[in-house]
Design brief:
Length: 483
């Protein structure tokens, strides 16, 4: 059973369909539509912050000229993938999985499912559970407490719950935040608003990237869709890795280079060090990409501005800052991040005992110690999400094939008796991760318990490495169930 019909769930379904055509499976989706993130978010300008040659599936070329793509383009691509691979019939909409109970006697997962369209409950069973719902809550984003919020006379909007009828034409807008969502919203809204102010507590590294990749488009023209896509994908994987490694190895030089680029993009005399000079090193948090420098262009035009300060209180007219300055606003947008939630908030039990995720250790970044027949898809934090998810899906299918070939029904990762130091599963400094780090699984200090964030290492481990690892305990079901 696959939980989630977003980019990861559709990808998992395609790998199962092509690599294990004899397997039966369903994709359970709580919402009324597929696409996950790319259907959920509707705020102005919503787009990827990774290029689609690496964010796209390895098996399906990205044919659009725009490499940094808008949500409608990505959504069309994901849904095309589902249709082309016969996955639409596998998706069960309005099926929200509330909990999953493993029974060793039956060697099955028993899923507690709510029908979100009728409110009724049902139970489904599966031999394996593949959690592909990402790592954040779909029903609510993160909004910190703001003093005086109730005093503000205008609308206060979180991007995750964007109203379709919000009219910001000719309005003054304050966008609170400095991450990927904020730097997307500001130039998109500045095209129609009277003025948009990005209010940030701490600066973020922001880099202009071309919306269209001229080399990738040329490769596609010269080599055709399939070969051109593969070549562009290899180029961009190498490029992402080189940039990340350079920033890790030479953070001071990387900071200077980013600053120099920012200076060229911004108006003369702009206080770059106040608004675009973070206190942390490049790639300690994710760099924000702005296609064709649209954020900088809006600042140069005077339709957008950046303020770095702390909020004292909301007022009737806008936001009062700790410096004493008041930002006038007709609309306030709280682009303050996600709420991280492991496994879609599933309540797991194994033979009646609740699974406490912080007590588990991730095996190869895709399974949990002590939890049988469960896999999950979490992508990279320092590169394109789908790069890792594709490798995880491949390895998952190889594992199932190995079990079938050897007559195994159950696979359980085990830490053994030797103590091992652990650290957070997502070792990343971003605020949305740090707020939830104590609710997530852990990772170890060695393979296969180390969660890799390097694509080439994962190719060796997940694509080329063996699946019959000593840390995996295989067994047969006490009673064979045919389903």
């Amino acid at each position: 059973m696959i939980v989630g019909a977003g980019i990861s769930g559709i990808g998992a379904g395609r790998y199962l369909t092509t690599q294990l055509p004899g397997k039966t499976f369903a994709i359970l989706e709580a919402r009324a539509a597929s696409g996950g993130t790319w259907d959920l978010f509707r705020y102005p300008g919503i787009r990827s912050d990774s290029d689609l040659h690496t964010f796209g599936y390895e098996f399906k070329p990205w044919r659009d000229e725009e490499s940094i793509a808008s949500a409608p383009r990505i959504l069309r691509y994901v849904r095309e993938t589902a249709t082309e691979n016969g996955l639409d019939a596998h998706i069960r909409y309005h099926h929200k999985v509330l909990g999953a109970a493993w029974s060793s006697d039956e060697a099955r997962w028993i899923l507690d499912v709510e029908r979100t369209d009728t409110g009724t409950r049902t139970r489904l069973t599966a031999g394996w559970l593949f959690c592909a719902g990402g790592y954040y809550r779909y029903d609510a984003g993160h909004t910190p407490h703001f003093e005086g919020r109730e005093r503000f006379a205008g609308p206060i909007v979180h991007p995750q719950q964007w109203p379709e009828d919000l009219d910001y034409a000719g309005k003054r807008v304050v966008v609170i935040g400095s991450g990927a969502t904020a730097v997307t919203l500001v130039p998109a809204m500045a095209a129609g608003a009277a003025h948009v102010t990005m209010l940030q507590r701490t600066p973020t590294y922001v880099m202009p990237v071309p919306k269209k990749d001229p080399i990738a488009n040329a490769l596609r023209r010269w080599l055709g869709d399939e070969r051109g896509y593969r070549a562009a994908r290899r180029k961009n994987i190498a490029q992402q890795r080189a940039v990340w490694r350079f920033c890790q190895k030479h953070p001071r030089l990387a900071r200077r280079i980013i600053r120099r680029i920012n200076v060229k993009q911004l108006p003369p005399g702009f206080p770059v060090d106040e608004h675009f000079n973070p206190p942390y090193g490049p790639w300690d948090q994710r760099l924000c990409a702005v296609p064709d420098g649209d954020l900088f262009r809006a600042i140069r035009r005077g339709t957008a501005s950046v303020v770095t300060d702390r909020i004292a209180t909301f007022t009737e007219r806008g936001v009062l800052l700790e410096s004493g300055r008041e930002l006038a606003a007709d609309i306030i947008v709280t682009a303050t991040g996600l709420q991280v939630q492991a496994l879609g908030g599933l309540r797991l039990t194994v033979d009646g005992a609740p699974v406490h995720l912080p007590d588990t250790v991730a095996y190869k970044g895709m399974m949990l110690s002590g939890v049988p027949n469960l896999a999950f898809a979490i992508g990279y934090t320092n590169s394109s999400w789908t790069l890792k998810v594709g490798l995880l899906c491949e390895h998952f299918c190889r594992l199932l094939a190995y079990m079938d070939a050897h007559g195994h029904d159950v696979c359980r990762p085990s830490l053994g008796d030797t103590p091992m130091p652990t650290r957070p599963f997502l070792d990343f400094a971003a605020g949305y991760i740090q707020r939830a780090v104590d609710q997530l699984p852990r990772q170890g200090d060695r393979m296969p318990w180390l969660t890799s964030m390097d694509y080439h290492s994962d190719v060796k481990l997940l694509r080329d490495g063996r699946v019959d690892d000593p840390a995996l305990h295989f067994s047969e079901a006490p009673v064979k169930v045919t389903a």
